[in-house]
Amino acid sequence: MPVADTSQLTSGVAERYASSLFELALEQGAVDSVTADLDRFQAMLDESAELKRFVASPVFSAEDQLKAIAAISERAGISGFFANFLKVVARNRRLFALPGMIRAFRLIAANHRGEISAEVTSAHALSQAQETELKAALKSVTGKDVTISVTVDPSILGGLIVKVGSRQIDTSLRTKLSTLKLALKEVG
Fold first, then answer.
1. Which domain holds residue 39?
2. Strand bridging mode 146-152 / 167-170
3. Chain-wide mean pLDDT for the chain?
4. Does residue 20 sit in the same domain as residue 100?
5. What is the pTM of this model?
6. Are 107 and 48 in the same domain?
7. 31 and 15 together in one domain
8. Which of 39, 109, 120, 148 is most exposed, with minimal Cβ within 10 Å?
């Protein structure tokens, strides 16, 4: 019996949950407030290695995850649909897929607004001016308004990795160094 690809399972779970959250938020006219709460939670994930480990860890019971998520949401001022959504995700032991759910929700919301969403990985946080310039450059290429989701990953050393739809542009220093290393091996 073949083993299922974990990333595909996570992606499928993430998309189903995100789609349900978006449909409920749309029905109630709460897409903007859910997006704000979602952004607040993503910022907390980006800033806290402990929260990242907690979300990804299968060690905690559903009850422990539920209590912790409820406390974190309350402290962060996250309420309404997204707070309830987080509790359902914790109760169903799906916190591991939460980062994918957030990405999927953003894509669904951007698509609904007629925008294209881009995932950007940078070695350091982008300034507002850099984000504006990147959005303008992507709009000139795609012909549509672009919303960007920036993830900071110091391991890429420098440059950017930009994913728009099925296209990826990788100008990271890590990739350039890897390419150079391979080229040098072939020459030597």
1. 1-113
2. unpaired
3. 87
4. yes
5. 0.68
6. yes
7. yes
8. 39
- The answer to whether 123 and 161 have CB atoms below 8 angstroms apart is no
Q: Residue 26 — pLDDT band, cuts 50, 70, 90?
A: very high
Which residues partner with 161 through β-bridges? 121, 170
Q: Please tell me the predicted confidence (pLDDT) of residue 188.
A: 63
Could you tell me the CATH number of the domain that includes residue 135?
Answer: 3.40.30
Count of domains for the chain = 2
Q: What is the DSSP string of 29-73?
A: T-HHHHHHHHHHHHHHHHH-HHHHHHHH-SSS-HHHHHHHHHHHH
Give burial (CB, 10 Å; 0-12/13-18/19+) of 185: exposed
Tokens representing 161 are: 């990795």
Which three-class secondary structure state does DSSP give residue 117?
Answer: strand
Same domain, 5 and 85: yes
Summarize pLDDT for 50-109 with one digit per residue, the tens.
998 898 888 888 899 999 999 999 988 888 889 999 999 999 999 999 999 998 998 889
Report pLDDT digits (tens) over 137-174: 999 988 888 888 888 899 999 999 999 888 899 999 99
